[in-house]
Specification:
This protein is of the alpha/beta class. Helix content is 31%, strand content 25%. The chain is built from 11 helices and 14 strands. The chain has an 8-stranded mixed sheet, with helices on both faces. A 4-stranded antiparallel sheet has the order 2-1-4-5, covered by helices on one side. A two-stranded antiparallel sheet has the order 11-12. A hairpin with a 2-residue loop joins strand 4 (84-89) and strand 5.
Length: 339
């Protein structure tokens, strides 16, 4: 984790996400239309997110499956269009870029996908896979391409001989290294790392995390690091944003959030992390959540966490959605407890 100064200067903001929503709509079936009983289904994957990524930091984005974190990450790099709201990269709206501007943006912003087995074309050699990115940058000389590809392979811990191999000849961890090399070939300054280690063995996870840290310093990168593993987030992130059912529940510097979580949902998540004590592995007092677990197609009114919350303050939790407010320097929370 790199120590950075968290200032409020607009010059520090690389990515600015403003009131972003992403709704997926499933139309009624043919029979449903005939019977006029089935309505279209609206899945609210991301539902009004405000978030900023500061230049040079690692912003961890954590949440359970279905929280909307991957959808948000894909919108940031323009793989999904938002239903509402705006995403700005260096003050330019990512989803209003002209063709030339979009091409330039793709050079600056890349994504590392979760599954290294499906993100690489099995019919292409590593040379061909990485060379696509180099051609996008205007590098057409084959010898120059090979020199850059070999250099990138060495930087991610592979061999220059691997340039002629195919994805099926590599392990999961090695494939993820290739994915990282492909992203670096665009010479980016910002990378969305979408659960880059969740599909790997635990022993390999640590190696990839260490590699990403090293490359961040070497290439002066900024990461939006998406994960559900809190231990990984704690290790690599400078700040952490906690997501639940498409909304941000809490944002804080990593050390502060892990020591003093304020939102009941964050407290419940952190209570599940094992800790090392004098008597071996132990846990904090585990917070077991009870109540109905909503889905993005059946969101409750008011606070999205109110059906499971152990610290409700009254009817307001069921009727009004709490805004994300700053309760101390760089620490924000969406909870009626603090209002």
């Amino acid at each position: 984790m790199t120590e950075i100064i968290l200032s409020n200067s607009n010059n520090d903001i690389l990515v600015n996400i403003k009131k972003v929503k992403k709704y997926f709509i499933k139309p009624p079936s043919f029979l449903g239309k005939i019977l006029a009983k089935q309505k279209k289904i609206i899945l609210k994957a991301v539902d009004g997110v405000d978030l900023q990524v500061k230049k040079g930091e690692v912003l961890g984005l954590v949440g359970e499956s279905g929280s909307g974190k991957t959808t948000l990450g894909k919108m940031v790099v323009n793989l999904h269009k938002p239903t509402a709201g705006s995403i700005f990269y260096r003050s330019k709206n990512v989803h209003s870029l002209h063709k030339i501007e979009l091409r330039e943006f793709r050079n600056h912003a890349q994504i590392i996908f979760q599954n290294p087995y499906s993100s690489l074309n099995p019919r292409k050699s590593i040379r061909e896979i990485v060379a696509v990115a180099l051609r996008e940058r205007g590098i057409s000389n084959l010898l120059e391409q090979d020199n850059i590809i070999i250099d990138l392979l060495l930087k991610v811990g592979l061999s220059k001989r691997d340039i002629v191999k195919y994805p099926h000849q590599f392990s999961g961890g090695q494939r993820q290294r290739i994915s990282i090399a492909r992203s670096l070939a665009m010479n980016p300054e910002f990378i969305v790392a979408d659960e880059p280690v969740s599909a790997l063995d635990v022993s390999i996870q640590a190696q990839i995390i260490t590699l990403l840290e090293k490359l961040k310093d070497e290439f002066s990168l900024t990461y939006l690091f998406i994960a559900h593993d809190l231990s990984v987030i704690n290790y690599i992130s400078d700040r952490v944003a906690v997501m639940y059912l498409g909304k941000i529940m809490e944002i804080a510097p990593t050390e502060e959030l892990f020591k003093s979580p304020l939102h009941p949902y964050t407290q419940a998540l952190l209570s599940a992390i094992p800790t090392l004590g004098k008597k071996g592995v132990s846990r904090k007092k585990r917070i077991l959540l009870k109540g109905r677990v909503p889905t993005p197609i059946d969101l409750p009114p008011g606070c999205p966490f109110q059906t499971r919350c152990f610290a409700k303050v009254g009817k307001i939790c069921e009727e009004e959605r709490p805004p994300l407010i700053e309760v101390s320097k760089n620490h924000k929370i969406a909870c009626h407890q603090v209002m």
